[in-house]
Design goal:
The structure is a homodimer.
Chain A (H helix, E strand, L loop, with lengths): L3 H16 L8 H8 L3 H13 L3 E2 L7 E2 L1 H23 L8 H8 L5 H10 L20 E7 L8 E7 L4 H9 L7 E7 L6 E5 L2 E5 L1 H4 L2 E10 L7
Antiparallel strand pairs in A: 1-2, 3-8, 4-5, 4-8, 5-6, 6-7
Helix pairs in contact in A: 1-2, 1-4, 2-3, 4-5
The structure holds manganese (II) ion (4 copies).
Chain A binds a DNA duplex through helix 3.
Chain lengths: 231, 231
Amino acid sequence: MLSFTEENYLKALLHLTIETGDKEEAGTNEIAAHLNVKPATANDMLKKLKEKKLIDYEKYGKSSLTTSGRKLAIEVVRKHRLWETFLYEKLEFTWDEVHEVAEQLEHIQSSKLVDKLDKFLNYPVFDPHGDAIPTAKGEMKVPLKKTLNEQEIGRSCMMIGVKENSSSFLQYVDKVGLSINKKIKVLSKQPYDELIEIEVNGKRFSVSPKFAENILIVSEDVEPMNTKRKN
Amino acid sequence: MLSFTEENYLKALLHLTIETGDKEEAGTNEIAAHLNVKPATANDMLKKLKEKKLIDYEKYGKSSLTTSGRKLAIEVVRKHRLWETFLYEKLEFTWDEVHEVAEQLEHIQSSKLVDKLDKFLNYPVFDPHGDAIPTAKGEMKVPLKKTLNEQEIGRSCMMIGVKENSSSFLQYVDKVGLSINKKIKVLSKQPYDELIEIEVNGKRFSVSPKFAENILIVSEDVEPMNTKRKN
DNA sequence: TACAAATGTTAGCCTACTCTAACAAAATAA
DNA sequence: TTATTTTGTTAGAGTAGGCTAACATTTGTA
Ligand SMILES: [Mn+2]
Ligand SMILES: [Mn+2]
Ligand SMILES: [Mn+2]
Ligand SMILES: [Mn+2]
């Protein structure tokens, strides 16, 4: 059984390597900075995690997750994002409030709890930030994320989140019939005033670019593993 | 901000004193035993909690919660029982599975989370063990708990839990239309075979004493603070 | 009342996690 | 290719929470 601290180191390493995409391994200072501890502190823990065969690490070298370390890290991320989804969907939290509480909830140990929560939420694929939720098997497909204004004309996409949280914006979102996991089709863009015509729930609306750039979407086509977010 | 450990000591003290009803204070060994630590360990913590003015304690004396200590302890109990209710009502946990996970969840720090959870569960009054859930204001009415077979003829009561968990029993409970918070009226008891005739949802059933003694109920009349459970 | 048993406290030690200060190695720039 | 900066490590120390062994106090009983 891992401690909260150990879990947080594994998660940090996952975020700094695989999730950020371009790197296979991370340095001690980098890990320390991410976790708000001093390099000396991180160094101790890295030695400990190496001992437990959860990471590969050699003195003065970079660190990376082993297969079992990665599996555990993904488990934590899964829990984090399921809890964020729960808070957002069921408890009326806003998308910017969920992360802090999920940082605590992600460490609750109970495989039954995770699986039942997943079921209760109807096996969600994206969390309120639009990040992919790993499945029970540890698979995580990562979407081509963009904002609604970046979507090409004539294509469909799915709303996965918002970038703004003002009540006026949210009320507008609601009025148009949009919410997470809703299908949106981009019908046209008006060259003159840049208004974007979309179809939601079979109804048509014209929205401003300002509105559209605060709607996070994922294109229908989803490709494997590669995201930028760290929540 | 209190640590998990400190919260557990306060909760232990609440359970050993107010909740068990007959005592105002608890001894060091007793507290240690309840928390599965050695008396020396408990002694250190009691000194620390006294320093923080959360308990009253004098060397070689018994300990008791101060007003602020009691308030915090009740907060933890509130969270514990709300989470148990959540697990039971929403995630299909059985009544004997909820406690262990709630022991972890009760330490999550977020007043918004607690309040929203309470609302989401529709402000439940009893947890799956039939224990009263303290309100947001820290009020906790404690019911006259008994089992269905102990209820007098002609009186109504409310189901607050079960004492058994076999699927055959649970299916029976379900078939009769019973669940937590359901009203039950005891119509009669057959002297010959001791069958109890009850009314649930306007329908009448006869149940055996064996069945009835595994149904936890609370009489309509509720009186202030005094329960025996420690979950 | 005196003594034994039960209860509570202290001292000393341990592990986990954190820090600062000093030092070593690696990477980069002159 | 040497010097400097960046990065990483070690040593020593602190806090929280836990333990054992020894000791002190209180309680209950003979
Ligand atoms: Mn997050
Ligand atoms: Mn997220
Ligand atoms: Mn419980
Ligand atoms: Mn309970």
